[in-house]
Every structure is written in C-alpha cells, then in structure tokens.
Description:
- Keywords: NAD.
- Belongs to the deoxyhypusine synthase family.
- 47% of the residues lie in helices and 12% in strands.
- It has 13 helices and nine strands.
- Helix 2 runs parallel beside helix 13 (309-320).
- By secondary structure, it is of the alpha/beta class.
- It is globular and about 55 Å long.
- The chain has a single domain, classed as 3-Layer(aba) Sandwich (Deoxyhypusine Synthase), CATH 3.40.910.
- A six-stranded parallel beta sheet has the order 6-2-1-7-8-9, with helices on both faces. Strands 3-5-4 form a three-stranded antiparallel beta sheet.
Amino acid sequence: MTSVSAFMDTNFRHFNARETLDAARAWRALLDRGGAMFLTMAGAMSTAEIGVSLAEMIRQGKVSAICCTAANLEEDLFNLFNHDEYKMVPGYRDLSPQDEHALYEQGFNRVTDTCIPEGVFRQVQARMTALWREAAEKNEPRFPFEFIYALLDEPGVPELFQVPAEHSWVLAAKNKGLPIYTPGWEDCTLGNIFVSEVMRGNLAHHGAVRHGTEQMQHLARWYTDMAARKVPVGFFQIGGGIAGDFPICVVPMLIQDMELEQTPFWAYFAQIGDSTTSYGSYSGAVPNEKITWGKLDADTPRFMINSDAAIVAPLIFSYVLGE
C-alpha cells in the first residue's frame, strides 16, 4: 500500500473522512468489476487546478466521460495558456470594494484567491472565432469541447503552454477521446464572446455550436452504448447545479420518455459538496431522493461528502490510482 492510500485507510475512520474513504473504495470496486465512471464538475475546480490530479485519472482510464460547467472547460484552457500571468490573493477575505475595483482596473477577474487576467480571454478569442467561423461557413456545427480539442491540435499551440501539459485535464481528455458535456454553455466567457461575435457580424449565425438538447442526445447514445456492452456506469459529482442534474437525468429520460425500460440505473453515486441538506435544493438533496426520480436504484452505493472538493477530490483520485 502506498502513502496516500495507507494514510486514508489508517486515519479516515468516521464522519466525512469515513464517507470519503468508502466512496474511494467503492469507485475502485466499480472499476474492478469492469465498470466505468462518469464525472461531473461544478464550481471553480479548473481554477483550483484540479487537472493536476484529474488528468492522471483520465490518462489511466479511471474516468470515461465528463460533464462540467462551461467555465470549467474553458478555465483549464486559460490556465494552460496564461498561468504565469495569474495573480494570487491569499487575503481575499479582507479585500474592500475599492480593492476589488483596483483589481478590475488592472484587468483581473477574481475567483476566490485567484485573479485571472483579462488578456487570456482575448488570446483565445481570435483562435476560437476562426474555428467558429469555419464551422458556420461549412454548416458543420460542433460541440463546445470539440472546438477546444481542435484548438489544442493546432500547430504551435503546445509551445504556448505555461504549465506542464500533464496538468491539463482537458488535454488528457482530448488525448483519450472522452466526450465533455457542457450544458448551458453560453454561461461562460467563451459563450459570451461567441454571442458578441455574432452581434458584431463576425459570425453569420448561432448555428456553429451544437445545442444542449443535442448534447443530451449524444450522452444518451453514449450511455446506451455502455449499457449494451454490459458496462455499469457510476456517477461522481463535484458540486451541484446543472453540471450534475443535466447528465444524471439521462437515465430517467431513457426509461420514462424513450420507454427503454431495460435501461440500467447509475451503478454508483457520490457527491462532494458544501451545501447542507435543505428544502428544495438540488445541491443539498441527499442521494436517496434520486431514487424517487428514477436515477438510482434502492441498492445503488451512495455517498454524500460534505467538504471542500479542492481538498477531498484529489485524495479520492489518489486512492483510486493506488497512490
């Protein structure tokens, strides 16, 4: 047993620590019986550089598909290109409104303790606009992640990286051919830029990017293909919101709306979040509520970890990797 795994096995005995260890062990067990894991991410996980640990999970086949907020998709890219220009603000809790305005005037957008330079958006904008324009002109729309993959394949792009390539989870996903679903893609910087390019006349129409319903159809086909191959699929959720609710609904959609009653439920469920159990909140809903929605079965392994995902997720990843 290696150091991280041994530490967790020895010390993670109760409360959220025990839940964390149980979730990690069950992830291993799912993979050991030929299963696959679907991972979702909300929050600013790419800003937190989750790629340092998640990329290796992808490379080793521990994650088979991803759904995330559009901000997480693009921010891994921004970090890859412009990490050295980022500004850290460890004392962010003490910032006054005037301090925040000073950061804005300096061209920084703050996410907790990390300030992202406005220039990174502009550096990517020209390259992405060219890809969007080509798709629009050829009437060959793509999913948002496919544009990102195309950009990463452009000549000379690797020379622009400011962090090790192995720390980019999106690059790892591209190299493994994983689908990345981003429901509500317009709610991100690149989505906003796309709209502005259409309004300025630089793009002829909105049709270059494939819609959210097409993403759901793609996910449904991915899931049914796994089911046809008898591969049980688990669901590991970081945070809540649309990144988690959109993909988990594919199972009741297939069963109830497509009337494919033999569709298997998700084979595992775990969530890391800091939302407490509350009334009517998706992020704060306990996992067993999902049974009534036809997402999980009564005997599906379920875990709810109330903690900081920036701390817990890398530990679970390390355990699954056997580190």
